């Protein structure tokens, strides 16, 4: 499946945007963190580029971490830069640490928990 | 604000405890550091007119009066995470410059259990999912910040290892350090990846320790025959401006991140009337190796990217052009949050006095700088001169 | 220390929230109080150069920057129990007098669960038996202090009831008060003995609320057309000297107890250059009725024992010779620890401005005094003049 | 049994006393709270006078209070002034609230928990 198409079908992240200073925010906040003015809800883009990343190599402390039933496995986490001019913290699925590059195109979708991203053009 | 009166506050006494683990409580350590600082200044406790201090997790500083003596002193507890020591120091400086006190105490201490710092999503205004899915891990943030910085400015993993190598080398020469075994860059690189690109031995650990400073107005310092004073030319705390990149953020604004460290350092240099080029020795927040690399540029000591060459050339070693973290920094001393910032000031005072022993910077340094940075975007800086 | 420069700090803006219970968090209340104070002064948030604030149990004041704006301001969290507000205020005054800031914020807030204040013996250095056998009860201490005082100075239980009667009467006239129903002395005496001689309605309760003050150097105040400033002539915090009688003490020294309230009040009057006889309206710590009685004398407003006559004659009522706790004090407002001391200052500012509404002291009061006292022997006092 | 005799037979409270400023302290503290100098252990007198008192009319909050098995009953608590020049917090047994007077002579003894006092001359 193609990336842009994925972005259309996957649930978009819902943020907010300040009409005055154009700052976009996630998650949505009724007040702009830059100028304090009122911000309006906005659906954020589903595609962006990876701004930075790391690998969580060890199991985080529980709580707050909930270890999966099949045990901890290292995972990639990073910030995805969207065209709206903000960077979103997300778990990066569907790629091994060796394959991660700053600037790579990724799709980003809302789900039950934190945002999850995956390389654009890669299907589940 | 201006440089007026900036030279009027002198550090007349300093006291530090060992930063390694012991049975002592945080308040035991604090009392010990205060007594050492008073003796170093030659000032009896009842002569101190105002006190400011705090810890993150080891109790209220003002309860020290039961150990030091019930003199009626105003004792303000401050609590600002990593900037706790800086807040105590700024408050003490204000007390002296305002005329409210001519002798003031600043004390910082802490004692964290092993593997401390359990963040709770609600305390940070975050959805529980950020904790449950494993994104509330401070080391991730540090790794992601330096990862981008390395990409933008051509810093290599070897440079990160060299920073830690220097920290352990300096720690081995510092009696109060916790980690006193030298470790070479290869061993640091091979110590196991924690969060790429940071390995296990590139990080500091939560620890324990206490530091106290006795500050005096110049008029008092003149009358202390035993004191060996150093001028505190600037003490500044700043909080983040919009656009900074901070730990536990579900999002960050685009563009080049603003830096509270740059803001605080700039304000400190302005207050002191000197600049980074004038500094002979400095202490920079080194929660992990990458932090020291970035803070070198954020505080104005080099251009972004220059660190790769400078560190390889040994510029930041004790014998280098700009010695950094000469007592081993957080990496070798651990990070008792409330004590860390004042440990840096202690180190600069001893360096400028020429009393830093095995880790003394050669050539008689006459100017020093300290910098702490902590969550959620607070920085405290000082400038000291001899 | 001396009166030099003492008149240079002005309270230009004040903000207070209702002190009754609501769903708002402590930080919600704090943000509301700060915005009110800024609007009252006509000062925008980015103009504030330094901030000091705290709560005992409702979070860190410095996190308010995310609501007020990320301006880079140094924001010091203070935490000194009942003297939290006083510590914030003294620190803000020092910042202005030292030249570090020309506009400074002091904010205090709290939100305690019902029946808060669970003491743990270990935190007070006490054997577990003191808790297990029921001796770690703060109300016991207050009862024992006033019991002895009544014996020594001829104070009757009816006087204690009259103090509370006045508190509820004043609270009924104060929009921000929590208890707004008048209660007469007979009902207060009949409300059930808690710890002899103190009955239920003689006590304040843990509560919620926030207060903020915008302080300015005189040079700035001149340029604020909307501000209605009051001079903060003195702000003082003191800790106990040896010999004081304090809560949770397994022993106390003999002789006449020393008083940290007397020490702090004396220092405040010295700094202000005026005395208790010059004060037109005052706010005294009234954790329970007995406290107000004793603090009247400890702060220098009468001789020990004179209260019996003065209170019966209505001297401390709003229309009396020395109105005390004109907004209902802690008894009618509850005691959110971090906010209580600044509520007193707020009340004096409004009284001196002639803007206290239904509880305005007649005749245009021009001088005011505030006093807090708290565990373990801390007191903060201020003197304000018009 | 006579008061003075009781004081002899009951276990004395152990405090400390500073040889320099003569301040006596309970419980024992190796450092004098007044001058900070070293203090020596001392056996405190078993008889004194009641300096102040109150009645605990309601059950303190549990924890830290441990409600007795037979339920809470109001009790008298006060400070007992000893000849050594200090006042000791103690539970006052063997007297009803109506009978308590400031200045009354009481005996004071150590036990398993906090110090307990009772009117001098009153036997168990
Ligand atoms: Zn905006
Ligand atoms: Zn002594």
TrEMBL record, chains B, C:
Gene3D superfamilies in UniProt: 3.40.47.10
Name used for this protein in its record: Thiolase family protein
Domain Thiolase N-terminal, residue spans: 10-176
Classification via CDD domains: SCP-x_thiolase
Pfam families the record matches: Thiolase_C_1, Thiolase_N
Residue span, Thiolase C-terminal domain: 261-384
InterPro entries tied to this protein: Thiolase (IPR002155), Thiolase-like (IPR016039), Thiolase_C_2 (IPR055140), Thiolase_N (IPR020616)
PANTHER family: ACETYL-COA C-ACETYLTRANSFERASE, NON-SPECIFIC LIPID-TRANSFER PROTEIN-LIKE 2
SUPFAM superfamilies listed in its UniProt record: Thiolase-like
């Amino acid at each position: 499946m193609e990336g842009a198409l994925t972005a259309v079908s996957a649930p978009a992240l819902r943020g907010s945007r300040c009409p005055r200073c154009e700052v976009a925010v996630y998650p949505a906040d009724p007040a702009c963190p830059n100028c304090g003015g009122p911000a309006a809800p906005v659906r954020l883009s589903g595609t962006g580029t990876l701004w930075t990343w790391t690998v969580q190599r060890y199991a985080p402390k529980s709580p707050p971490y909930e270890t999966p039933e099949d045990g901890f496995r290292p995972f990639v986490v990073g910030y995805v830069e969207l065209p709206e001019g903000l960077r979103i913290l997300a778990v990066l699925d569907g790629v091994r640490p060796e394959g991660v590059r700053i600037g790579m195109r990724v799709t980003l979708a809302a789900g039950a928990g934190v945002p999850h991203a995956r390389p654009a053009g890669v299907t589940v | 604000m201006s440089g007026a009166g900036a030279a009027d506050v002198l550090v007349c006494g300093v006291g530090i405890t060992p930063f390694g683990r012991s049975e002592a409580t945080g308040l035991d350590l604090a009392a010990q550091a205060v007594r050492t600082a008073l003796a170093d200044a030659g000032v009896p406790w009842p002569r101190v007119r105002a006190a400011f201090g705090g810890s993150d997790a080891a109790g209220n500083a003002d309860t020290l009066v039961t150990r030091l003596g019930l003199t009626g002193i105003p004792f303000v507890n401050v609590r600002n995470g990593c900037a706790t020591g800086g807040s105590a120091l700024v408050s003490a400086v204000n007390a002296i410059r305002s005329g409210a006190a001519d002798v003031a105490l600043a004390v910082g201490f802490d004692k964290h259990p092993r593997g401390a710092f359990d963040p709770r999503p609600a305390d940070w205004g975050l959805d529980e999912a950020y904790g449950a899915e494993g994104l509330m891990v401070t080391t991730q943030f540090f790794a992601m910040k330096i990862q981008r910085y390395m990409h933008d400015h051509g810093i290599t993993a070897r440079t990160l290892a060299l920073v830690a190598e220097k920290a352990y080398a300096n720690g081995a020469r510092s009696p109060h350090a916790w980690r006193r075994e030298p470790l070479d860059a290869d061993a640091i690189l091979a110590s196991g990846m924690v969060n790429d690109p940071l390995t296990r031995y590139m990080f500091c650990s939560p620890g324990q320790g206490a530091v106290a400073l006795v500050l005096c107005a110049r008029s008092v310092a003149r009358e202390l025959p035993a004191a060996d004073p150093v001028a505190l030319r600037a003490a500044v705390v700043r909080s983040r401006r919009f656009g900074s990149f901070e730990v536990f953020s579900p999002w960050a604004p685009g563009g080049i991140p603003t830096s509270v460290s740059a803001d605080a350092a700039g304000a400190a240099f302005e207050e002191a009337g000197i600049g980074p080029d004038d500094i002979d020795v400095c202490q920079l927040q080194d929660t992990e190796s990458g932090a020291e690399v970035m803070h070198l540029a954020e505080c104005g000591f080099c251009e972004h990217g220059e660190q790769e060459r400078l560190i390889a050339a040994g510029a930041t070693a004790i014998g280098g052009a700009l010695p950094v973290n000469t007592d081993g920094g957080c990496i070798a001393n651990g990070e008792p949050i409330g004590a860390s910032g004042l440990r840096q000031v202690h180190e600069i005072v001893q360096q400028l006095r020429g009393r830093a022993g095995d880790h003394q910077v050669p050539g008689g340094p006459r100017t020093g700088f300290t910098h702490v940075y902590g969550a959620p975007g607070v920085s405290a800086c000082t400038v000291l001169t001899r």
